[in-house]
Amino acid sequence: MEKTSIHGMWSSRMAFILAATGSAVGLGNIWRFPYMASDNGGGAFVLVYLACIALVGLPILMSEVLLGRHGRRSPVNALTDLVRDLGASKGWISIGWIGMVAGVLILSFYSVVAGWTLHYSWLYFSQLFGAPAITDPGATFSGLLGNPLELSAWHAVFMVLTVAVVALGVEKGLERAVRFLMPALFILLLTLVIYGATTGHLSEAAAFLFKPDWSQISGRTFIDAMGQAFFTLSLGMCTMMTYGAYLPKGVSIPQVGVTVALADTGVALLAGLAIFPIVISFGIDPQGGGPGLIFTSLPHAFNAMPFGIAYGLLFFALLSVAAWTSSISLMEPATAYLVERVGMTRRKAALLVAGICWIVGLATVFSFNIWSSVRVPEGMGVISNKNVMDMIEFVSNNLMLPLGGLLIALFAGWVVKKSLLKDELDTLSPGVLALWRWVVRVVAPLLVLAVLISPFVLD
Ligand code: PFF
Ligand code: NA
């Protein structure tokens, strides 16, 4: 009989694709990717980012899913079983622990930013009923950031929404939600690209995004691109491993992996093509946009376009939903672990994890107001001048996720038996399997390692 997970199973291949795409597609694509590109000078960053997705992201994505499906338990326990069966070192179990800690750190700031999108949804919703328009987007955004009470309230609302779904178990609400909402988001972005074309700046935007200006490339480009690749594909913290645990046998892991990676990359590029024409046409500098980029640029377009209020509402509401399907997956590893290990109910476990994330998230909330002067001193290389939120992002996205990914690749490539890999990746031809294994053993680890140590050697 086939081994199944005590937490439930995805009802079909499609259900997994939707859930994994729901996890991947989120703020990382629409909020973070454009401003990372903006801060790193555009095209050169995008190219390095795409290389990271193909050479590191996709192979590790497949590794995570196959390890999860083989283990059928939450990461720490799945790895414990596997290490025991293989007679390997218990040290590998640390991958699961790194993942849970990274998940809490990421969710802590993710939820704060998702709170911004909720707030903007509310701003457009109330405009439908006569509230004043956002005439000065920069001022509106800094007004929000300057208000810790408002920030922590929206952060709380978003956490409650996340707990509500995780507590119910993932299959019910989620499968249904992503089935309609993800395509809707896609269409909305496409419309925004078409709008961007009417501004007459689409080709300039495309040039900024796709024509590499090699003079802009630095150590930081590689660090940011690698971090973004891990973050956007939800890799390195065992999220995809956890989702893989609920994946029925018989579904082709390479096929679903490619689908998820393509969908995620497509949405990111589309978001870039939607946002930069607007940025350029409203006279905003496309370089150095920072985390406020979409919040300070898009409202200009929504003010100018027909039905802009309804459109703005739809845009931010769908972005909130995209963030929601990602935050659910951020909570799942720790929640599943608590259920298995301590025998907590799903509901209690989810509440506990969310409570911790909310409290840790206050550090992000304060980094824009009462702690805004807390900065890493100059002369500290790539982390110079970062604020508290930047540092939390740096530690999770640029250190913990790549470290987790590196260990996952090494484990899948060197420790796991070839027969197990062959069994889980049975749709690959022997040649492709060998290629994949070589990438996971050698190429991906070397690339990640190079990027991982660079912050310590670069200035
Ligand atoms: N991939 C998500 C995004 O791009 O918004 C963020 C994320 C979700 C990161 C889940 C990590 C994770 F485990
Ligand atoms: Na993403």
UniProtKB/TrEMBL annotation:
Chief location category: membrane
Coiled-coil boundaries: none
GO molecular function: symporter activity
Cellular component terms (Gene Ontology): membrane
SUPFAM superfamilies with a match to the protein in the record: SNF-like
InterPro entries: Na/ntran_symport, SNS_sf, YocR/YhdH-like
One Pfam family this sequence matches: SNF
Membrane-crossing residue ranges in chain numbering: 12-31, 43-67, 92-118, 151-168, 180-202, 222-246, 258-284, 304-328, 349-371, 399-417, 438-458
Localization annotation: Membrane
Keywords from the named record: Membrane, Symport, Transmembrane, Transmembrane helix, Transport
Bilayer topology term: Multi-pass membrane protein
Key word Transmembrane helix present: yes
Family (UniProt): Belongs to the sodium:neurotransmitter symporter (SNF) (TC 2.A.22) family.
PANTHER family attached to this UniProt entry: TRANSPORTER
Protein name as annotated: Transporter
Organism: Marilutibacter spongiae
